[in-house]
Amino acid sequence: MKLKYYEIDEKKLLQEAKKGKRIAIKMPEGLQPYGYEILQFLKENGIDAIFLADSCYGACDFRKVEGIDRIVCIGEAEMPYLRRKYLPPVSFIEAFYEFNADFIGKALPYLEGNRIGLVSITPFIHKLEECKEYLEKRGYEVFIGRKSRRTKYDGQILGCDFTSAMQITSIIDSFLFIGDGMFHPVGLYIATKKPVVAANPISKEILREEITNAAAKIIKQRYAAMAKAMEAEKYGIIVTDKIGQHRLQLAKKILKLIEKKGKKGCIIMMDNIDEKVNYLGFDCYVSTACPRVAIDDADKFEKPVITPIELDIVLNEREWENYEFDQIL
Ligand code: SF4
Predict the structure, then answer these.
(1) In the Cβ-directed half-sphere of 253, how many Cα atoms lie within 13 Å?
(2) pLDDT of 271 above 90
(3) Pocket test for ligand 1, best of 292, 293, 297, 329 (most atoms within 8 A of CB)
(4) Which of 44, 61, 92, 164 makes an SS bond possible with 145, Cβ 3.0 to 4.6 Å?
(5) Ligand 1 contact, 295 CB (< 6 A)
(6) How sure is the predictor about 64, in pLDDT bands with cuts at 50, 70 and 90?
(7) Ligand 1, atom 1, residue with closest C-alpha
């Protein structure tokens, strides 16, 4: 079945959907317009399902749903360490984008050095070996880092987990990211401080300068948020119950640190971190949930929303020069 640019395996979809009696489907925003089509396909094959149309930012974004005994998630790859923890159980049907690896030839003039680290995200990751061969035939030495407990594939990165890239950072000259969107390559650049070239298999665009510019803009925005946070007295420490973003222990440690520094704080449970933070009565928020929220949605917040690493800087527990991207590892 073709959904937008992506192909999904119908046989696997049916096989997984048949594992439950009360099925719900869930998918990332880009695929949600195809929800009806998928429900119809299941119905024609004798399966009634409901559509969970709330957020689905990744394989981390799941919680209990009453009356449902299996969720079929279309378009995400599982987080292996959560395999037995999803409640109800979740079947992941990945979506793949087919492309010819030759297009990365356009990226070669932008690469620095001869030792290249290859990274990607799930719809494109099945082509990583082909991209590696393409580069090797042209004389490059290519490295693909090993997967982490949160990623399914070697070379795969998440917006909150750059493990496969960090493993090879010290032995490569630059990274080639195969995928779409800016968040992953920009995060990769901030996390590793190595040159990053992004090759988009859908648009065939190659980005390099755009990534460094976007990273500089984000760092500036983060420094402004931290400067504002330095005036805060009352901190709200946000915890979510989304299964792959839940960091209550970290929130408790943060609360202790805040109190040790003579400030006040409370732990707040919140699933969707949105404009509500503007009127909850705290001066500043520390988000232990998805690290993307503080960065992607910064414009929505009137109060500073910072990451745990940024809090360390605000409270003089870490030097400004040692700024790091927050990761859930
Ligand atoms: S970046 Fe955020 S949404 Fe993506 S996998 Fe990590 S926690 Fe989940």
Answers:
(1) 10
(2) no
(3) 292
(4) 164
(5) no
(6) confident
(7) 159
